[in-house]
Design goal:
Length: 61
């Protein structure tokens, strides 16, 4: 059976990724296999580090 939540090879742009719900969404998408472009009014360095710790690529935009 196919895993409908497998995002391996996909990219996600997450706005508000520096804190709160945006950070939680970025981490959830990364856990599902997506690489993340983190967007926020302030740098999302903490989020990027957490995503990279999950073994995914992440960049601040």
């Amino acid at each position: 059976m196919t895993n409908i939540f497998d995002l391996t090879g996909r990219y996600a742009i997450v706005t508000g990724a520096n804190t709160g719900i945006g950070q939680a969404i970025a981490l959830s998408l990364a856990s599902a296999g997506a690489d993340i472009a983190a967007v926020g009014r302030t740098p999302a360095q903490e989020t990027v580090e957490k995503v990279r710790a999950l073994g995914r690529k992440a960049e601040i935009v």
